[in-house]
Amino acid sequence: MVSINQLTVDFGGFKLFEEVSFLINNKDRIGLIGKNGAGKSTLLKIIAGHQEPTTGMVTMPKGMKLGYLPQHMKYNDTRSVVEEVELAFSELKALEQQIAEITTEIGERTDYESESYLALLDKLNEKTERFNLMGGSNHEALIETTLKGLGFERSDFNRNTGEFSGGWRMRIELAKILLERPDVFLLDEPTNHLDIDSIQWLEDFLKTYGGAVVLISHDKAFLDAITNRSIEISLGKIYDYKASYSKFIELRKERREQQLNAYVNQQKKIEDTEKFIERFRYKSTKAVQVQSRIKQLEKLDRIEVDEFDNSALNIKFPPAPRSGTVVVKGEEVSKAYGDLLVLNEVDLTIERGEKVAFVGRNGEGKTTMARIIMSELAHQGKLTMGHNVKIGYFAQDQAERLDETHTVLETIDLVAVGEIRTKIRDLLGAFMFSGEDVDKKVAVLSGGERTRLAMVRLLLEPVNLLILDEPTNHLDMRSKEILKQALRDFDGTVILVSHDREFLDGLVDKVYEFRHQKIKEHIGGIYDFLEKKKLESLNELNASIASKKNESVKKEGSQAKLSFEERKELNKKIKKTERQVEDCEAKIAELEVKLEQLTEKISIPENASDTSLFAEYKEVETALNTAMTAWERAHETLEELQLQKSELE
């Protein structure tokens, strides 16, 4: 339970947000929503304890563990991937050492009945239980599962972290935070450096996680899959809804319509009352009624309509010059970086007007192929560009390439040529750089502002092939929707390297999947592709299971039937484990009721500073987690025993 109380952040007279208050409850899945610059990252930093508010405070139970992933961080490149990730288990390693020391001491003592000896046994049990709860000796398997889920190969595990790009190092930090199993995850744009496979793995992990999650993301599909609560920061205020992102958008619209209707009715009532007062103000016979109406107006609780921040991009790509029917044709294209083969004799054909997605895990060659098409990389095989193809390219690190010493206006003025130079300010205004904004240095711009500025370059001259490598990173929801519509309306050809499913949905009509040095063409949209891929994976799994069964059948002889005594023993184990499962379920139900009662108490503002209440909440929460772990183990044991019984009958 984390309490955010009356937070205000003031930057030189400008209030980013004012007197913001809300609670983060256990198992909350909160999406922080708002346009770039609204204060989402600042709020997350304050909750994480990395920044102080101007006024207000954040309170939480003593010992509560937070896992914070910022958008940008500095890295320490002195360890291998596994060594870096193992830092998440520093407490586990310390417990392991303490258990070994206590075990040694117990083995050396003979005063078995003494109080100190019994206390030592209790301490060993306590440490062992905590050790098992945190993963125990299974932590190596947890590391492997997590790293593989985030896209690492086993061959990457012993590589130095300094060999990886910033995006991959961010994955390493994310892996550490996931393995630490904090009470609350605070994740700022965790999907920015993940591919579709890794995003789906992270979705599954967070959906079933026992703690709370607060995340900032402009990936609508990711938010909808995880969140059950949305908090929007807009114009210094917050709007809190117990709903996923898509449902929140609907509820917000309904709320505003209701407010507007109530506001209009109230304004009509106020107007009628004021007319009555004005009409009979000086008539002594109506003095009592006039005074009554004046008091009514003074006591009236005036309805306010939620303000909406409607600033948004205004993008329209220039008409595309006509190109040949075939825009790009690749035949047996290969590319290697030293001994690392990325593309191996791949073929592809992209025709005029097609909107194509390049998808696949990071490092599989998507950006490499985009750069080959741009003639930025030497390669083997044949790549032919169609007649009159003019390319506009947005690189993955385009925003980072900008010269930080230039202003916004200078950045565009230095590359614009011809008639477009007379329209630079209008162009920047369309990308939300107006007035004094054009004189800001690039160094002070946010990630979203830099992305928008880098995108302005695409509109400086007409092109008929747009190659966009991760264009939506750092763009807010509204900006992404407007960019998506502009690309839909663009009459040229588009190649999109992206992991954003919602952005690609309804935009692309062909998907090239990059995997194992090859590419595979899928006709249709992104969700068609993901559905087919899921089916392929399921078929592979079923084939693997069938193969294992056949191997088992082919083994010479079959296992002898269990003897009567062995069957009897197995049944006894099953019944005993069934009782354990039932006992755990009863304990869990009891603790959940108690936790709910404590949550209601803590939600009362007067109890916000009651440390004993928070301590009791933490104690019950820990007991519930322990009971859940015990239930999971008992349930797994029961399933194994029942499977063993069914196989031998």
TrEMBL record:
The keyword Acyltransferase does not apply. PROSITE patterns: ABC_TRANSPORTER_1 (PS00211), ABC_TRANSPORTER_2 (PS50893). One of its GO terms (molecular function) is ATP hydrolysis activity. The keyword tRNA-binding does not apply. This is Probable ATP-binding protein YbiT. Residues 2-260, 328-541 form the ABC transporter domain. SUPFAM superfamilies: P-loop containing nucleoside triphosphate hydrolases. The lineage of its organism: Bacteria, Pseudomonadati, Bacteroidota, Bacteroidia, Marinilabiliales. Keywords: ATP-binding, Coiled coil, Nucleotide-binding, Repeat. Residues 560-601 form a coiled coil. Belongs to the ABC transporter superfamily. ABCF family. YbiT subfamily. InterPro entries: AAA+_ATPase, ABC_tran_Xtn, ABC_transporter-like_ATP-bd, ABC_transporter-like_CS, ABCF_ATPase, P-loop_NTPase.
